[in-house]
């Protein structure tokens, strides 16, 4: 009877439609997830290994920046309050790993106060399980004669400025400046941030 091939064609079309919808949802959701997690893209500015989204706490924030804030439930800094930079790679372009030691060295822009912490993939402070947190701030940092600083990041104690990390896997650095003139800079072309040099890695 003729209804058999018609039914077969309808079933085939339905399956193809469901497959197309699944692919569209998967690719669309994946692209949005990547955009919201990547430290680059719309609204981003990059200075060396550091990336910031200057407009994220302003009414001019793009939809993706607004989605970042809504998803993570964070209180974004306004232009007059400060600016946060995130590093997911070292100065040579290699992804940061907790198994490796790093040296963060150089000058820091003018700010009333700044913080630096080691973070996981969610940009939360890494729990060290020790009295010393994986964070430093400008009031406790030891500086050189030319007002620069050298910070050792490692799972093993180091003399001077030491930022401890634990575990293995992905690592991020979050550097936030509060009450700083760079937050109001439009180009940020004259801003210099410290470099991140990779050291020895544990096996």
Architecture overview:
- The structure is a single chain.
- Helices cover 22% and strands 26% of the residues.
- With 203 residues, the protein is an alpha+beta fold.
- A hairpin with a 2-residue loop joins β1 and β2 (50-52).
- Mean pLDDT is 78; it is low at 29-40 and 69-75.
The count of helical stretches stands at 2
Shape: elongated
The fraction of residues in strands falls at 25-35%
Alpha carbon gyration radius: 23 Å
Biggest sheet features: 6 strands, antiparallel
Poorly predicted runs of 5 or more residues: 29-40, 69-75
Spatial strand sequence of the major β-sheet: 1-2-3-9-5-6
- Distance, first to last CA: 70 Å
SSE string, helices as H and strands as E: HEEHEEEEEEEE
Helix/strand/pairing class, anyone?
alpha+beta
Averaging pLDDT over every residue, what do you get? 78
**Residues in helices, as a percent range:** 10-25%
Give the total of beta strands: 10
């Amino acid at each position: 009877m003729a209804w058999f091939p018609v039914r077969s064609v309808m079933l085939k079309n339905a399956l193809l439609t469901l497959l197309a919808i699944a692919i569209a949802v998967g690719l669309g959701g994946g692209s949005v997830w990547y955009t919201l997690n990547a430290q680059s893209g719309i609204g981003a500015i990059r200075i060396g290994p550091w990336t910031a989204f200057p407009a994220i706490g302003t009414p001019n924030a793009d939809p993706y920046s607004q989605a970042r804030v809504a998803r993570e439930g964070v209180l974004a800094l306004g232009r007059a309050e400060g600016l946060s930079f995130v590093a997911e790679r070292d100065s040579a372009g290699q992804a940061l790993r907790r198994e490796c030691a790093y040296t963060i060295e150089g000058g820091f822009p003018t700010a009333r106060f700044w913080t630096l912490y080691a973070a996981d993939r969610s940009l939360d402070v890494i729990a060290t399980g020790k009295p010393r947190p994986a964070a430093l701030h400008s009031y406790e940092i030891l500086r050189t004669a030319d007002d620069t600083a050298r910070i050792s990041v490692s799972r093993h104690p180091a003399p001077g400025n030491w930022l401890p990390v634990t575990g293995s896997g992905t690592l991020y650095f979050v550097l936030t400046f509060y009450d700083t003139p760079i937050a109001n800079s439009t180009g940020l072309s004259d801003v210099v941030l410290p470099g991140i040099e990779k050291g020895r890695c544990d096996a």
